Amino acid sequence: MSRRLYFSTAAYVLLGLVTGVQSATPNTVVLDGSRLVDAKSRLAHDPSLKQTLASLTAQADSWLSQGPWSVTNKIVIPPGGDIHDYASQAPYFWASNTPDGCPYVERDGVHNPEADKYTDHGDRGSMFQSSYILALAWYYTGNTRYATHAGDILRTWFITPATRMNPNLNHAQIIPCANTGRSIGIIDFSQQYTSVVDAAAILASGAPGWSTLDASAFRQWNVDFLNWLETSKFGQDESVVTNNHGTFAIMQSAAIALFTGNTKLVQSKTNLMKPRIGLYITANGSQPQELARTRSFHYSTFDLVAYTRMAAIAKKVGVDLWGYEGAQGQSINQAIDFIIPAATGVKKWSFPELNFTAFAASDIIHASADAGNAAARGAVGQVPAPPGGDLWLLRPAVEQLDPVTS
């Protein structure tokens, strides 16, 4: 009878530290690679990181039995007939009470389950989250299962010819009876795709099962996707939208540009972000376009995910977006100060909100505290932890922590 050797999470961490596994600093675009190196060096002797690591590996373990996913798995073929094209349906649009259901009418913030027939949207979310968590878990533990599964997930979605996604979003957020895709659909990727780029960067620091050929092919996919974002009408239209869609579009292009070595474009996108702070954040820190939504707290934090991630990207090219202020003192920190009382329970959120979730602000407040905001420092620990635990100490980059459908 053969004997199998099982390693605990702690054993994998120690094995990685002793053997020097994945010693290179990950060349991440939002995450600070040097902070990952520092956190990893402290794992063996810093008790404060034990619970965070346990939460991270618990999430990673749950993903080991799921995926990989592919756009070619869908049953509903997208407009144009190419199964390799990503497709999704606008989640807040509902059929009219007519024989053919046309026209579809918007019900802001209310998810239409009919949209779920386009399985790419849900599969994309699983692919995004799993690859990121698994890559991080490998980095900190040295457990090869995490790395090999993360690599398989990314290869299947982006690289393997039979299953890869075409590098465009021509058919995202379709409104039936009205169109075959919209520029607004870019939010399907821009809200979280930068985490996938960081996952690939972490794997490229020495992960088993992620070769230099994989890294090169993934980089080329991003070169092609960035070209589509910058030259297509959809990409150009989305980048000038004045609410969270525009903030995310600019941030996504900046991140991909940094990943592919286009520093000039990163600088350009950073310069586009500065006037947005002055134009769309008010003197009291509110974001009027997000407050007008039926889920105003959600969208206020959502927009700040894009601003804070962009600040992390800008720092890598020597630009301080955290310190930037508009003519009336508007700043990212000021916008975070505006949501802190509700996030900590000190004050009730007084704007429309269909499903208030205070934990949505957790990462944003962490980032602001790290950037030197005294109010945010005082609020850290006062915000409820997100489901699955607070991962900030090992994953110090802002994520959208509550469900998002648009």
Please name the CATH architecture.
Alpha/alpha barrel
Proportion of residues in helical segments: 40-55%
CATH superfamily: Chondroitin AC/alginate lyase
CATH class: Mainly Alpha
Provide the gyration radius in Å: 21 Å
* Largest beta-sheet characterization: 2 strands, parallel
Give the percentage of residues in beta strands. Answer: under 5%
Q: State the domain count.
A: 1
Strand neighbour order, sheet with most strands? 1-4
Shape: globular
H/E element sequence: HHHEEEHHEHHHHHHHHHHH
Tally of contiguous helical segments: 16
Determine the oligomeric state from the structure: single chain
Question: How would you state the average pLDDT, rounded?
Answer: 93
Cα end-to-end separation: 54 Å
Unreliable sequence segments: 1-7, 14-22
GO molecular function: lyase activity
InterPro entries: Alginate_lyase_dom, Chondroitin_lyas
Keywords: Lyase, Signal
Protein name: Alginate lyase-domain-containing protein
Task: Present the secondary structure layout.
Layout (H helix, E strand, L loop, with lengths): L8 H11 L13 H10 L7 H14 L23 E3 L3 E2 L10 E2 L13 H22 L2 H16 L11 E4 L12 H4 L2 H11 L8 H20 L1 H7 L4 H16 L3 H18 L7 H4 L4 H20 L16 H12 L18 H9 L3 H6 L27
Parallel strand pairs: 1-4
Antiparallel strand pairs: 2-3
What would you note in describing this structure?
The protein is mainly alpha-helical and 406 residues long. The strands form 2 sheets. A two-stranded parallel sheet has the order 1-4. Strands 2-3 form a two-stranded antiparallel sheet. α8 (212-231) packs across α9 (233-239), α11 packs antiparallel against α13 (296-315) and α13 (296-315) runs parallel beside α15 (362-370). The chain has 16 helices and 4 strands. Helices cover 49% and strands 3% of the residues. Keywords: Lyase, Signal. InterPro entries: Alginate_lyase_dom, Chondroitin_lyas. One of its GO terms (cellular component) is periplasmic space.
